[in-house]
What we know:
Structural class: mainly beta
Distance between the termini: 96 Å
Radius of gyration: 65 Å
Largest sheet: 13 strands, mixed
Number of helices: 13
Shape: elongated
Amino acid sequence: PKTGCVANSEMVVAPQQSLPVGYQSPPATIAAGFSYGRICTGEDCEARTDCSNMEADGLLLGGWLCHPCLPKPCAICEQLGPSAVACSCPGSVPVQLGPGTTTVGASVLQHGEVVRVVCSEFSSELTGEVENRCDMGEVRQTGRCWQSCTPKVRTPAAFHHLTSMVTPEAAIAHGFTAVAACSALQTALVGTMVLSCTDGVLVADTHSCEGPACDATTVAGVEVASLADGQSVVLQGQCSQLEAGLSGDALVTCRAGIMRADRLTCAGGQCSAGYSEATLGETTADVGTPTLMHGALFTQPDGCAAINPRFSGDLPIRCGNGAVVPDTDSCEPPVCAAGGVAATVGGVNGSVPVQRLGWGSVAIVPDGCEGVNPRYSGDVVATCGVGGTVLDLTGCTGKPCAAESVDVAVGRGAGSIDVQAMVHGGTQVVAEGCAAAGGAGFEGALVMRCDAMEVVADTSACIGQPCAVSTVDATLASSTANVPSPALAHNTTASLDGVCSTVDSRFTGDLLVECYAGVLTVDATPCVGLPCAVDVAGLVQNAAGGCESISSGASCVPQCAFGFAAQGEITCDLGVVSSTATCVPMGCAEPPSFQMLAVDTSYRAAAGHSHCANTPHNRTCALKCKEGFAAASELLCAAGSFSLQGDAPHCVPVCADVPQLMVANAVQGWAAGCRGVEKGCDVLCEPGWHGAKLACCSGAFRVGSCDGPAPDAAGPLCTAASCGSAPPLRHGDVSACNNLGHDETCSPSCESGTVVTGEFRCSFGRIVGVPACLPPGAQTAVVMGARGQVVASGFASSAEAQSWGNRAEAVLVEVAARAGTGQVVVEGVTVTEVDVSSRRLAQLKAELDYTVVLPQGGASFDANTFAENLKIGVLQAGVPSGVFVEVAAPIVVSDMVVEATETDSDSDEDSQILVIVACAAGGAAAVLLLAALAWWCRKKPAESKWCKPRPQESQSTVVQIGATAVDEMKPCDVGEKAAATATWSSADTQASAGTGTPESAISTTPTVTKSPSSRKVNAGAGGKGSRKGGAPRSTSSGSGAN
């Protein structure tokens, strides 16, 4: 766009120029204040005339098709091309063709393209052409098709007082005329009439017709000579002879051979203003007139339509001798439009296409009957008259019927009847046809009638045979009996009173016997089975009534006692009762009532127990108590009602707080867990100390039980913890060493042939010393270790449990390496069955016991961290679905006796091989890794029952670790996951024999070896052992670290 163009409604022009909006100034600017593409319809601006000066940018600025002042810009489709979408038109255009329409043309018309329709190509009765031109996307239609007047059209023709229907001898095209003899109107007429056709409407002009002459006669008492047709004569002063009161000269005219006197030329009385009745077509109406003198003429504009809206034209009104005479002959009759006219032929509704007709004209529609109903033939006569186009369908006649076989129903049967060809309305009588169609029980003849190609059977003469007195079989349930029947007419019934019980004693009522076409049949529907009297209370436990009487074939749901709901139903079958009904306890849909809670809980229950709504039967719900009280009972739902379980009080006072005591060795803040309890709590003590139990009694704490002293009057509340069961000891009995008190020691009893070395010692709930039962003179060492266990429960099979144990062993070695411990000893996985309730499937539990040596006194070993890392590793290694894994912190033992045997001295080196093995110690989950020097077997291999030959390259090494000995140890092969060796000089061995293993002799590389022995040890014959020292035994049985 050029300089000065804007996109708003303001006109921009070059300086000192003034142009209308939308016009172009060729040398300078475009003044078009509209946005691109705007649809500009209805804009108030002048039509453009300077298209030759319009440039392409002007078209673009205006959006070409949307120029503000040019809804259709000049030659735009010539510039864009005639095939442009905005310039093309739909080619299919409807064209009116006489009584109907049709669609003509191509699929698409381009701009400027023309499609011409020659009407005569569609019908010989049509003339004219229709031109469809595509102009800027719109189809412009010019011309039309005109209906010709054919001999099928008849129109009324009038000459004087004569009227008759005339028709052309040949078709007259629209706008053309033809002549017809006036004799067609009346034989006495001579000359020709002119027939003109206007779009199918035929009009007869009879002005050129001449009638016969009138013979001499007497008119108004005056002899009148013969007159030619249309000739008139004046009878002076004879008006008074025509009618009393008239004066003047009478006019006599010859019209088609008849002399007629015209009173309108006479003088007489005037016509008063008022209304006069006039009839036009099918309508009669009053016509208003002013005051008129005799003979005066008044014309009422559009008066014809005032009488009948279908007519047009002005209505002449003349006054004659005081009477108003409307002249309706001058009214223009209506025209009946072309189109379909509704018709019903033979019960079928349709329409008949009729051409355009003038008033009173008649047209014949060939084969119009068949167009409505294909079963009829004949022409339809259409007349344009009262109410529009009226059809005459009397020419419609049904088509004949061909010879065929017809299915005929008689009574409850049907059969095929052969008939011959018949004309419409014809009949044939088929003797014995009723029996052929309805069966042997019928008599009479069939009358077959043709109704427009369809054969209809008249069965009114068919009569069924009656039934004589007889007997008939009747069946009820599984019983059949022969019962009598009276004589019956065809299609009648009789009731046999009380016969149902005769057939079957389980029924009552009357049988019905029916006669149809000479055959008796039995209807047992009225027979009713015997009802059932039901003892509901004896039949259904907890029933409250209902269903005392049940009809046969019916079912009933009993009523149940309060708190019970009915399930199932009681059924009666021919007097026999069957039942699936039960009264089951209901759940508690509503919460317990406040009244019940208030009384049974001494008004201590809290308001609002909505959580108890919809509690199932025999299930409990938590009791809510007021602040300061705690529930000591539960709410039980039974049969729809709640009740409190247990003895009162159901809401007991809670202990709000504990005395502010300084409890030695207690965990800081231990009292927080004791606030607001209703049964009591334990004093939380530091590890190695056991806390006393505090009982809540009537809102106050007591030590031990409600009979005990108050906390501030009792002794120490944290006492040194005792130890639980002593760990199993190979070749020893530890039963006497269970439940050691703090700082108490115990020596177990050993089997015959062994002696005890070391002793159990309890220190603050932990056993810190582990003895051993060894052969006399065995070399021993004392080390620190940790003993632990990994437990997994929920396995479905032993194989699954064993597979998990193998993975857990590998994880154990890796975790031990990261922890910097010494060797690892692992015993085989123990699989046992879990004790579960009968409602669950049996499950298996796998236990992995382990021991680790803690080098350098174990100062850096964190048991809790070790257990946490071990559990994480086990879980990451994979745990079967549904298996629960427990890993407790291992227990550290400070004094553990180890027996070591020396290896074979075949080696040239002056050093000993230290073989470390790992085993699973019984008891709680823990980790222990020990090392021992094997040399003793070399000195006394024959005397020691633990020494066995070593295969090929090496001898057997035996290591006794606490409670477990490992037999037949394999050499440490490369590639096994658990093996390690370390050197320990003989000088070190001699220096440490019997006094403990030096820490430098313990390897820190994890080594794992399985022990084939069981972790469970039976006591030997060496006695029960002895215990000594330590603090006084506590009455509470502490188990392990607090």
